[in-house]
Amino acid sequence: MIYLEKRPQPSRSLSLLTPVYAVIITMIAGGLLFAALGKNPVEAIRTIFWDPLFGQYAFYYRPQLLVKGGPLVLIAIGLSLGFRAGIWNIGAEGQYIFGAICGAGVALALYPMDAFFIFPLMILAGALGGWAWAMIPAVLKVKFGTNEILVSLMLVYVADQLLAKMSLGLMKNPEGFGFPGSRNLQEYPSAHNAELIAGTGMHWGVVFAFIAVIFAYVLLNKHILGFNIRLTGEAPRAASFSGVKPSRLILFCLGMSGALAGLAGMFEVSGPSGQVNIDFAAGYGFTAIIVAFLGRLHPVGILLAGLLMALTYIGGDIAESQLGLPSAAIQVFQGMLLFFLLALDLLTNFRVRFKSGAAA
Amino acid sequence: MKTLTSINPVFVIVVVMVGAIPLLLSGTEINPVLLIASLMVAATPLLIAAIGELVVEKAGVLNLGVEGMMIVGAIAGFAISVETGSALVGALAAIVAGALLSLLFAFLTQFALANQVASGLALTLFGLGLSALMGQSYVGIRPPAMAKLDLPVISDLPVVGPILFSHDPILYVGIGLCAAVWGLLKFSRAGLVLRAVGENHDAAHALGYHVIRVRVLAIMFGGACAGLGGAYISLIRVPQWTEGMTAGIGWIALALVVFASWKPWRVLLGAYLFGGINVLQLNLQAAGIAIPVEYLAMSPYLITILVLVIMSADKSGAPASLGRSFHASQ
Q1: Which of B33, B74, B1, B23 is nearest to B246 (CA)?
Q2: What is the CATH number of domain A38-325?
């Protein structure tokens, strides 16, 4: 007879180890999946996890690690604040899109002016755009008690349509020969989010991601607001007795995650992606949810998880072109990772006991 | 006063929406009979998925994976229909696929005691990926058609015929399901146990009911319904397979349960309202009125938000144990 015994305290070592276990089990299960698709599992796993870092063409892929990891970490840091307090913003994709639209909108409105303040203004607009998009579920939750999960998610579809409208209408490149999509911001020096150090993939978005990690770490460990966030998540009753105002926490957590997601979108549209276009949204907002959980909602963990997730994106692309592995297989792989992680979490909170006869 | 406050918002929404239809239709050439017939088709996937989720939530479990289970049901039903040549076999396969996928959620939340919100999200992300993977070789194929109800004379009646008597069988199954769930929840002993588990799982456990078993069964029922709802989209509503084709219907189904205050008949009403909005906006897109296509396409999501805001004042129908994990040691 197997039964579960609740641990008096969640195990600290296991809490750190479960993400590692989850990754290993996902690799095994992923290998089985790839084998079922008729690919050599060892080769596929090596292509995804080893080649981008140490393979023959690694010099080309390594910068991508920061390019793809930057937005993931930036969004996930914001999400983790809310997740810790039980505030579920799952519409980061929408805030990401709206931030990008606002940031790019500033640049396109000022085109072709050449000035130093354009890029900072775009950063501000991106953050404000994401913040405003996230304030919709926040204010509705505070004022009317509306479920923030559903509202923030519905707004992703709205933002998607808005993006389509913008790239076909208002923001369409007048010199684009009728193709959808805005002017390419990479060709507009004052607005281009260029690589800071050539060949590293390091752009302003990555810098902001690192700042966000440090900021979140300090907030959660050294500041009363961070303490209140953790308290609300772990002991809501204690939090309300100690005078934590839930509505302020909701506005802060949703607003913060929205602003960070908006920033990520703005840095993406002015840098690696370059233009507002129908296919701009790449699902970073949803993958960041997995990153946040994989990183145990801890800033440093999220940094590592973001890089790992970026690796699966890059490796997935390589596996697609070299082995013909369908791109959806990587999506399944990422989904499995979250499953295994959640299942293994059991071990941190409970002890598995084996006993014959009557159980508790 | 009590009945007034609980009925008012729904009543207002219905009146406003029904009142807006003739206004929007004036000046276009849309046939109202066909409009009603097609809104019933548009509403059915939503209705079936939402009824399933209602049962799950009545048992005290919040499964946010409806969208994932729907899309897996959509591709499973599509693929099996194409392979076997029978749409009915496909629909059965979708039911099985949805229930199987929901077992993953049931394992995570009921046995591994994982957070229900996170597990539901995982299910959706996984389901979207899995369906894209499964569906690669099915893009651009037409599925076998499902036979429609064709009664002599009755189906040919003007107005009543096309609206009531000439649909596919699953549409009637959806309405029947709604009635059955209402009856079972209200009058049967099984329904009473289900509600007890959802309202207070500790009390239900103390009375000797198997909380986990009831919940797992409810989750599987929800999964089966979501699968069938998804297959309805890919087999009848559209009918073809494209990646991500459920386009948020699973999430709207979740909102619908809140809108309905966990009451089956209101789910039916809500599904037909949303179906109506969707068909109307599609018709308006086709009719080429002055509003841009993208803004029309946004409208179902915006109206969902609006409805959620209006309805969220009334949480009296929500099961008290909704979203809480149960472990006998606690």
Answers
A1: B74
A2: 1.10.3470
Q: Which of B57, B94, B62 is nearest to B230 (CA)?
A: B94
Q: DSSP secondary-structure letter at B62?
A: -
List chain B residues with CB under 8 Å of A289: 121, 125
Domain assignment of residue B324, yes or no: no
Predicted confidence (pLDDT) per residue in B41-84, tens digit: 888 999 999 999 999 998 888 898 999 999 999 999 999 988 88
Domain residue extents for chain A = 38-325
**A310 SS3 class:** helix
pLDDT tens profile B122-136:
899 899 888 988 888
Examine residue B175 and state whether it is found in any structural domain, yes or no: yes
Contacts of B126 in chain A (CB under 8 A): 332, 335-336, 338-339
Q: What does the pLDDT read at residue A42?
A: 87
- Domain holding B43, by residue range, is 9-150+163-311
Largest CA distance in chain B: 66
C-alpha torsion angle, residues A287, B64, A87, A138 (rounded to 10): 90
Nearest to A146 among B243, B251, B309 (CB): B309
Question: Could you give the C-alpha distances from A290 to A45, A325, B126, B132, B207, in angstroms and in order?
Answer: 20, 22, 11, 19, 39
Q: In this structure, is residue B325 part of a structural domain?
A: no
Judging contacts by C-beta atoms under 8 Å, the chain B residues touching residue A150 are: 251, 254-255, 258, 304-305, 308
Q: Which of A236-245, A288-297, B19-28, B306-315 is predicted most confidently?
A: A288-297
* CA nearest neighbour of B119 among B187, B46, B68: B68
How far, in Å, CA of A231 to CA of A219, rounded?
13
Number of domains making up chain B: 1
Beta carbons of A145 and B312 less than 8 Å apart = yes
| Chain-chain contact of A342 with B329 (C-beta, under 8 angstroms) | no
Per-residue pLDDT band at A231 (split at 50, 70, 90): confident
Separation of alpha carbons B124 and B132, rounded Å = 12
Q: Give the CATH number for residue B103.
A: 1.10.3470.10
- How would DSSP label each residue in A36-101? HTTS-HHHHHHHHHTHHHHSTTHHHHHHHHHHHHHHHHHHHHHHHHHHHTT-----HHHHHHHHHH
Minimal-distance CA residue of chain A relative to B297: A161
Mean pLDDT across chain B = 83
Asked if residue B327 belongs to a domain, the reply is no
> From the list B64, B121, B292, which residue is nearest A165 (CB)?
B292
Contact A26, A340 (CB under 8 A): yes
Q: How far is B187 from chain A (nearest CA, A)?
A: 30
